[in-house]
């Protein structure tokens, strides 16, 4: 059996990643509800959740989380959805990820390290409430 995917399957997968990047929440959620693996990753290890967080789509992040997306999964560079949301200064996505147990210290760089490096005190306050 070949590990190679046929062109149609690859095209479909790329389209799903584009839906996450574009914040097409309802369409992407429909595919997940119909059987698309919620933790599908691309060639860089980016999950649908990481892409939605990085491209600042909190509604898509929330929809994927309610469908069981793994909030702790890191891409091939060690980055998590939480660190991506922090980098994009998206407090709504950060809160959604924290609410389901995302670890502010997980990944490399972690969300906390990202907030410190880019001097994002408002994000750090969300990650480390007083």
UniProtKB/TrEMBL annotation:
SMART domains: ANK. Keywords: ANK repeat, Repeat. ANK repeats lie at residues 44-76, 77-109. InterPro entries: Ankyrin_rpt, Ankyrin_rpt-contain_sf. SUPFAM superfamilies: Ankyrin repeat (SSF48403). The keyword Repeat applies. It comes from the Bacteria. PROSITE patterns: ANK_REP_REGION (PS50297), ANK_REPEAT (PS50088). This is Uncharacterized protein. It comes from Micromonospora phaseoli. The lineage of its organism: Bacteria, Bacillati, Actinomycetota, Actinomycetes, Micromonosporales.
């Amino acid at each position: 059996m070949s590990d190679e995917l046929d062109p149609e399957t690859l095209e479909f997968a790329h389209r799903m990643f584009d839906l996450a990047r574009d914040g097409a929440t309802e369409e992407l959620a429909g595919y997940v509800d119909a059987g698309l693996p919620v933790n599908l990753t691309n060639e860089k290890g980016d999950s649908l959740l990481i892409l939605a967080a990085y491209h600042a789509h909190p509604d898509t992040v929330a929809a994927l989380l309610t469908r069981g997306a793994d909030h702790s999964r890191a891409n091939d560079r060690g980055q998590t959805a939480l660190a991506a949301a922090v980098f994009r200064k998206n407090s709504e996505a950060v809160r959604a990820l924290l609410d389901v147990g995302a670890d502010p210290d997980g990944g490399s760089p972690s969300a906390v390290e990202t907030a410190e490096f880019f001097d994002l005190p408002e994000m750090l306050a969300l990650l480390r409430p007083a």
